[in-house]
Amino acid sequence: MASAIATDYTNEVKVSPEVASFSPEVLAEINAHVAKYPPDRKRSALIPLLLLVIHREHGYVDNAGVNCLAQKLEIQVQDVWETATFYSMINMHPVGKYHIQVCKTLSCRVRGEEEITEHICNRLGIHAGETTPDGKFTVSRVECLGSCGTAPMMQIGFDYHEDLTTEKVNKILDSLK
Amino acid sequence: MEIKAIGCEPLQLKRVHLENSHTLKVYQDNGGYTSLKKALDMSPDDIINEVKTSALRGRGGAGFPTGMKWGFVPRNSPKQKYIVCNADESEPGTFKDRYLLELDPHALIEGMLIAAFALGSQTCYIYYRGEYNYLIDIMDEAIEEARKANLVGKNILGSDFSCEVYTHTGAGAYICGEETALLSSLEGFRGHPRMKPPFPAVEGLYASPTVVNNVETLTAVPQIIEMGGEAWRNLGTEKSGGTKLWSVSGHVKRPGVYELPMGYDDMEKFILEDCGGMMRDDKKLKGVIPGGSSVYIMRGDDVIGKDVRMDYEGLVAAGSLVGSGGFIVIDETVDIVDSTKNLTEFYKHESCGWCTPCREGTDWLVKIFDRIATGGGRPEDAQLILDLVDNIEGKSFCALGDAAAWAIQGAVKRFPEDFKPYLLGEKTTSPEPKARKF
Ligand SMILES: Cc1cc2nc3c(=O)[nH]c(=O)nc-3n(C[C@H](O)[C@H](O)[C@H](O)COP(=O)(O)O)c2cc1C
Ligand code: SF4
Ligand code: FES
Question: Considering A75, A171, B22, B78, which has the largest number of Cβ atoms within 10 A of its Cβ?
């Protein structure tokens, strides 16, 4: 039996050789990021490129994007994965069109974060950490976002929404098409 | 939210209320970039001496004297030198840098340029936390404006001094505020801290001499050059000069960013009057964490009637630390077991995993607090927690481990009455919202 298990174990890693082909504008943007650093230190541009360019173009970090960055920055593919997997804002899986991140840290918590999270989750019919079936919203609970003076708060994409009340949350969610 | 100075003329907050305060025109109309002009006529040693005289201490959390840090940079080294601004601001309860970056970006550019000139650097990077993306757009615009006015780039203001300023983004990791982890991240690696020594001043970014300073530290530099180190120091105390920004959040009527002279002598008045008092009039002050989440929590009775002085020495005497100056004020409705559990989750999430005491220790803290909070408390748990944090504190690779230890130690030692019913199995926290699931 043991050998059957071993041969059935076909969970091989599939690395697609595909490389993202970006428009000339996006390539120029990539070059502008790379130009900020010394020519032999191109790797410095990696995190900004993952977060700003690959996310925007592909929604999350995929093989094609990783291969492209490895080429542009003259590093190994696994170097890109190594760095990408460390950072909580770098999505390794697709997220909804609107990524709602509610701050759950102390200053927000003592000013009503739980009520806000619960309200959002009830409205969307999902738990934190999940995406709505239509792929429109993902809800996460995250750590302090530097907005503690205007707690409770959430960030959707890169936009801050502060001093939240359930009515305010309703208005914001209604405005997202 | 309030943004205002109390007990002093606004210095850091001098321009923030002006319309279009982020533009070059408003900055220059209000004295901006005159300090840079003045500095370019000074010798680098004189600039560093002014900063030393000013008794400016780093505003990022550790409070290290800035002039001394600058003095460690080997200026004769043939290597490139770098100025790196720490705009990672991820300490819970801290949000002062955000408003400086949004409302007064040119002050930071000017501060960095003066530092670069004094230390012989031609390249400055500003490392933003990833969530502060909108601030990068504001800064990029400010840098372009400054470049057009010959304030950034080649031969600044017709001098021999050339310097570039670049923005850089992180992507969500509290540990990247720690200066050596920040440098790893800026080089495109995972945000793991590095061994010190060598200190960044000797071997920092790309193994070159590097000064890492907080936003508020650097925006103080033009003020020091403008009014002279001694005059600036006299605004504060002998050992910590100038004014300082405090972020205030939690249960006060007017949360906000407040500029106070260093050594402001009444913490009780600050919370109960200057910040509008308690959010709910009938609820008493239970505690305050004065330096961002990473310092000892103070009990309300250690603040009220105690004349706590707000500077480095004053807060140590009162049993806590200045840290990042982020006041988290909590009233009597808050259960300290619940609030401390919240912080254990923060440190567990943000531990970078590099060293065992912090990686495993913070994980165990969360497990123990979860057990206590759900009815599984045992009388010996208080000691168990203290033993556990004792094995983190001073035994971790970087200060994040210490920070976690202090936050939890303070709560367990100072609020035994809150822990007791849990440890006797008589109480549980309210069930977590169903949304708790990650
Ligand atoms: C876990 C940890 C997080 C930190 N986060 C920040 C931060 O967000 N911003 C900051 O300026 N300093 C932060 N620091 C302090 C920095 O390591 C460093 O002391 C500071 O940037 C130096 O600048 P200063 O001398 O101007 O304060 C942090 C330190 C630790 C240990
Ligand atoms: S103390 Fe924590 S954050 Fe610091 S190196 Fe160790 S695991 Fe990483
Ligand atoms: S605690 Fe929520 S933004 Fe800081």
Answer: B22
